[in-house]
Each structure stands twice: as structure tokens, then as C-alpha cells.
Amino acid sequence: MKDDKKDFEDIGINKRRTDRIYFESPNVQTIYNRMEFIKNENKSLLKRIYSTELKQKIDSIDVEELKEESINNIYDFIDDVLQIKDGYIYNTELPEFIKDYSNNMKFALNRDKTYILKAKRKLKSDNYGSSVRAIELCDKAIEVNYFNWEAYYLKGIALINIDKYDDAIDQLIKSLALNEDNLDARLHIAFAYLFKIEYAKAIALFDSVLKVDENSFDALKGKAYTYYYWEKYDKADEFFKKANSIKILDDDSKDMWDVCLEKL
Predict the structure, then answer these.
(1) What distances in angstroms separate CA 254 from CA 43, 79, 84, 251, one per listed residue?
(2) Cβ contacts of residue 12 below 8 Å, gap of 6+?
(3) Cα 195 versus chain centre, distance
(4) Closest among 193, 217, 222 to 206, alpha carbons compared
(5) Integer Cα distance of 104 and 138 in angstroms
(6) What gap in Å lies between CA 123 and CA 155, rounded to an integer?
(7) Rg (CA), the chain
(8) One pLDDT digit (tens) per residue for the chain, 264 residues
(9) Which pTM was predicted?
(10) Whole domain around residue 30: which residue ranges?
């Protein structure tokens, strides 16, 4: 069995600033690597803040964005440590009553909501790894509270991000079963069907949203996109026009609309 004390004794071996420290314990190594990452990221942020170019544009600096980026680095590190701890509890041969006690305590402390907040933060990063981690966090929330509709909803979004559309639809339907008033879940199911090239089902879902909210910009634009890819350009033109009357379309949508007009 490894002696974890050796990890800390190893620190004294490397004295030069350019040296990299390595530990025998994978868990300790993961934590150390994350700390190094945070240190380097925050150094980069400080350089951006104090650069001459940035000082000249001080009025246009989004200080809140820089602050949030730095705080998120710290939260990610804490999340990594908690992930190691949870992994130890559930992957180690501990008695079941200890694992059950851990879950009951998490439920009592509303830990499912904590997992939800972390998952939301992960979904702000548009990359595969963040979506996978969001799915893991949603699973933890569901394990603590099976009836947390938001956990299924966010998991569905994350699954769409990694192109697992059937699994996403399944999770979003579970979310709707617990909270049928969540129109955003219907929208995401509709987009999942659009990505699956099941256009009729996508239109039906967008229509179900419009029956509740006839001015839903996302549903109108979603129908326009669906008809566009379905090559029904006259219908696409109709719904691009309706969507644009509610909110000005983005440049990509306008380009698609222009194609529709050329096809008519």
C-alpha cells in the first residue's frame, strides 16, 4: 500500500522554479495540476488587466466578466476535489449504509441544487468536456433527488451538445413529466428532432409551444429553420418574417432568409 506521506516529502526535491513536481498519489497529482492551471490562468487574467493596451481601453473593460472567469477557475478546482472525494465514496468497498447516509445528508442539505448550479456553469462553456461534466453533475443531482426536474432538463441540453439526441429527448421528456409548464424543454426536444432530420416531429413540437405562447421567438425561428432545411422555402420565409417582427434576426438567420427569398 502506498504511503501518502511520500507525496508531501517529494515537494522538497524540486527547488528550481522551472521544475515540475510529481506525486505518487494520482489524487494529489490531480489537485496539484489543477492548482497550477488556476495559477497560470489567473496570471494571464492579470496580464490582460494591467496591459498598456487594456488600460487605454479601460472604459470598455468588462470587469464583471474578468471577475467571473477568475472565480470560475477556483470553482472548477473545488469541483475537481469534490469529484475525487465522491469517487472515493462510491468506488470504494464501503458498507452500503455509509453510502446511503451520504446521499441522505446531501438531500437534507439541498446538495442537488448545488449540483444544478455547477452544471449550469459548465454549460456556459461551449465544449465537449464541459457538457460531459454537466451530465455527470446532473446525474449526481438525480441521485440525491430523483424528482428534480431541472436536472433532467439540463442533462438533456448537455446531451444535445454532444450529439446524443435520442438520449436527450428521453431526459427532456422526463423533465416535462415533472414540470409540464417548462416550454424550454419542449423547444429543446423540437431542436433535437430537427438535428435528427425528423422535420415533421420538430414542427409539431414548435407548434405545441406556439399554442401556449404565440409570440415565442425561439419557436418561430425554430420553425423557420426546420422549413429551411426541409427545403420548404415559402414556409421558411413566412416564419423568418414572423420571428423578425418580434426580434431582429441574427446575421446567420438573415443569410438563410435571403436564400429562401432567392428560391421563391
Answers:
(1) 40, 41, 47, 5
(2) none
(3) 19
(4) 222
(5) 17
(6) 10
(7) 24
(8) 444 444 444 444 444 445 555 656 665 566 666 666 666 665 665 565 555 555 555 444 455 555 555 555 555 655 555 555 555 545 555 455 444 544 554 444 457 788 898 899 889 887 898 999 999 999 989 988 889 999 999 999 999 999 999 999 999 999 999 999 999 999 999 999 999 999 999 999 999 999 999 999 999 999 999 999 999 999 999 999 999 999 999 999 999 999 999 998
(9) 0.64
(10) 20-53+63-92
CATH number assigned to the domain comprising residue 164: 1.25.40.10
Domain count, the chain: 3
If asked whether residues 69 and 117 sit together in one domain, one would say no
Burial per residue of 186-213, b for 16 or more beta-carbon CB atoms within 10 angstroms, e otherwise: bbbbbbbbbeeebbebbbebbeebbeee
CA separation for the pair 121, 72 (Å, rounded): 8
- Looking at the fold, whether 159 and 202 belong to one and the same domain comes out as no
Residues 169 and 101 both lie in one domain:
yes
Give the end of a domain, one of 133, 160, 180: 180
